[in-house]
Write a structure and sequence with these properties.
Blueprint lengths: L1 H13 L3 H8 L14 H8 L1 H25 L6 H14 L12 H11 L1 H18 L2 H18 L4 H17 L3 H6 L6 H6 L6
Helix pairs in contact: 1-4, 1-5, 3-4, 4-5, 4-6, 5-6, 5-9, 6-7, 6-8, 7-8, 8-9
């Protein structure tokens, strides 16, 4: 029962999509521009960095809160936080009321990591920033993080089961970013610097 509740609560929390709410307030459909996703990176590209930061904080926060809440409610259920966190990531990516077209899940994945191991989350965030700045592509930082977290948890801490649970989210996030790879290879992917300069932004 604890895991069923964790999945349900996690998924419903994940369905809360700040990018959609802000875009609707601005009379913009993020699904028709940029990457077509309702997440922090596309909100930054099309609506500006302030909107992107707000969306990122919301997406990180909802995932962290649901993990902590489930761990508090069910302290004896092993890995219930990881289960709830992955469900939250999937809810963000596949919200039922938006025809299962949400964001790409990275910010929520970071929120899950923050709640499970805040020290690891800070290290991963620093690595994401460094990799993103060096490559100019946000997706490179994303790939670094979603691979590093389950690998670290499995190898360094011997927490193999939560590592495998998180790896499920890694696979889905990779799938959602599959179109970014050929764009990077063709140099048609919008870079971080271009996004911050406001190129492709909705007026």
């Amino acid at each position: 029962m604890a895991y069923a509740i964790a999945v349900l609560v996690g998924y419903l929390a994940g369905c809360s999509n700040m990018a959609y709410f802000i875009a609707r307030w601005r009379a913009v459909d993020l699904r028709d521009g940029g990457s077509g996703n309702l997440g922090a990176s596309n909100a930054t590209v099309l609506l500006g960095w302030k909107a992107g930061v707000l969306v990122a904080v919301h997406d990180i926060g909802k995932a962290a809160l649901v993990v902590l809440a489930m761990k508090w409610l069910f302290p004896h259920a092993a890995n219930v936080g990881s289960v709830a966190g992955v469900a939250c990531v999937l809810g963000h990516i596949f919200p039922f009321y938006l025809k299962f077209r949400g964001g790409k899940g990275f910010a929520s994945f970071l929120g899950v990591t923050l709640a499970l191991n805040w020290k690891l989350a800070l290290i991963v965030l620093a690595a994401v920033v460094i990799v993103t700045v060096m490559t100019d592509y946000i997706v490179c930082g994303t790939f670094t993080a979603i691979v590093a977290v389950p690998v670290y948890m499995g190898v360094a801490t011997r927490s193999w089961l939560p590592a495998l649970i998180l790896a499920a989210a890694t696979v889905v996030i990779f799938y959602k970013h599959r179109e970014n790879i050929p764009r990077m290879l063709n140099h048609t992917e919008l870079g971080l610097r271009s996004a911050l300069r406001g190129e492709n932004r909705v007026k």
